[in-house]
Amino acid sequence: MKTIPTLLISILISTSAFSQINTLMPVPASVTPQTGKFNLNSTFSVSVSGNPDPRLTKAIHRFLKRLSKKTTLTFDPDTVIKSNENTTFTLSVDRPGLVRLGEDESYALSISPSAISLSAPTDLGALHGLETLYQLIERDGSGFFFRSVQIKDQPRFPWRGLMLDVCRHFFKVETVKRQLDAMALVKLNVLHLHLSEDQGFSIESKTFPKLHELGSNGNYFTQDQIRDIIAYAADRGIRVMPEFDIPGHTTSWMTGYPELASAPGFIKPEKRFGIFGSTMNPAKPETYTFLDQFFAEMCALFPDEYMHIGGDENNGEQWDANQEIQKFKSENNLKTNHDLQAYFNLKILDILTKNGKKMMGWDEIYQPTLPKNIVIHSWRGRDYMDDAAKAGFQSVLSNGFYIDLFHSAAEHYQNDPIPTGTKLTDDEKSRILGGEATQWAELVDEETLDMRIWPRTAAIAERLWSSGSVINVDDMYRRLPEISLRLEEIGLNLVTNRDVMMRRLAGSDTISDLRNFLNAVEPQEGYKRHSIKPGYTTFSPFSRGVDIALSDAPDVISASLLVNSMIKSGNRNPDKKLFELAEIWISSKKKLTRMAENNIAIKELLPVSNQVSELGRLFKSLLEKYKSGKTLTKQELQKIEAEVKLRTKPVAELEPAMGSVILTLAKKMTPGR
What we know:
Layout: E1 30-40, E2 46-50, H1 55-71, H2 77-80, E3 89-95, E4 107-111, E5 116-122, H3 123-135, E6 138-139, E7 144-153, E8 159-165, H4 173-185, E9 190-197, E10 200-201, H5 210-215, H6 223-234, E11 239-244, H7 251-256, H8 285-301, E12 306-308, H9 317-321, H10 323-331, H11 337-354, E13 358-362, E14 375-378, H12 382-390, E15 394-397, H13 409-413, H14 426-429, E16 432-439, H15 449-453, H16 456-465, H17 473-489, H18 496-506, H19 512-518, E17 521-523, H20 545-548, H21 554-569, H22 576-586, H23 588-596, H24 606-627, H25 634-647, E18 654-656, H26 659-668
Parallel strand pairs: 2-3, 3-5, 8-9, 8-16, 9-11, 12-13, 13-14, 14-15, 15-16
Antiparallel strand pairs: 1-7, 4-5, 4-7, 6-7, 9-10, 17-18
Helix pairs in contact: 1-3, 4-6, 8-11, 21-26, 22-24, 23-24, 24-25, 24-26, 25-26
């Protein structure tokens, strides 16, 4: 059972309180509402001054196309974009920005009733300003407009990323580009592509073609496709950093080049998921000769200054069983496998340095002898990141941002790379570069990817962009549905595909009953889903109820907002929507039982629907008691707590999500608890 934090509905009283200004995500550094509004009509025109990169012109074209779609008005770039500054929308850029770590991404946006101006030191800042302006479009009975406002904005952290695993499941170029569009909307600036894994080698190598020919199951990016992705990303101010995970997680490497392996025998890419023993042999000079040539090719292909070498989850089993490797350890005074991997890392560091790259790796690569220009990527916990910062290393946080674990947006949102109360010095804090949302691909495919990454990653993007004082979970949840709609508008399928999946599972166009049920449950958290038998593989369909349920059950979030608002206000008359939700949950068992009579795919959901129904009855009973002014004894509260615990146990890899709402109300009704 998830714990949903207290969600309060903000009381907004200013004239602009209900405008799009208050739905921006990420929240800008400074927002000052003004009087009036800028009306969009046929006189709208755009001009650019200064010295921007040509990508700004492309961005303006994209902006005008989106503006046309959003407003139903026609904004033809050939007539809207002018060569002089006598326009209603002026952009001023000092210089071309470099798509690299630490570039200036700030901007200032001013909207008055007569004009819009956007200024930035680099065109990267101007790109962010255009995304903010798009989020500000409004409409009323008279037309479309932007409210007057002054915005000054810059990011809190320079490294704001999304890690996408394209090996356990491969994603097409078009799918990757959708994520880049979404990243640009919420101002993320690093796409970390995880390109090699036990299940697949997902990029073409012309130097060693058997890597992709035998190690990819036919699913890989050609080098021309990679160049296309890099260019597409750069046009949006986004870096593309590759990861080649070594020395472990290397089964797909060995399929074509078994001489790299620490153990003999033919192997092929894995279909299952987990930690496997396949590990490169660090005792053979030929291993480094191979990697020298391979990384020379990849360093030339990827322009980013960083190359990620993985380095995680090497269980050392093959090294322990290989007498040649044990002899090598002894001869080189390498006492442990960690020492041996440190030796390996230093060899790889030399190769990358020779090719003009800086090394990054998961926190297992950390060792004091490494040069201080490497980056430690923390996945095992904040302590590893803090220890690296204290030792003089830069680091990036992903622990707490693992969106593949099905945690709520609130949990990710409250995970700050530099939290209040940190014991790091200012100098040490400066080495925390930011963070990355991390989407491992065991339990996603092309159809489900968008709704697994988004909108929760928008909450992470805000944590990495906005001030550390922007911590109101309530307000984040208020704005999250709005950003979901904007993401759908620009081409993502987080809403659309979910409807498609429900229609397919129901075998019908009538999906309201199924939707009501799935909006009340959430996927089981963590990696517990991998413990089921026979287990998931790269060929699993991901089309069951658990694959449609969201990490933030929409109806439960709505109930939480209403309950907490009611408690805060002292109102004893619950909103009728709460009773409606209780009745919907109560009816779940009956309605799904009816669906399952002619639909075997629904039958596994029946035990969960029974749990939801029983919790719905409990919730309704509490609402009625609360309305009548009744209180609960401590013994009654304990009984409710026991029932909630019983009724929220995972079934079919799903968890009823309303337990925390029930307990919030029950505790409020128990004086002196």
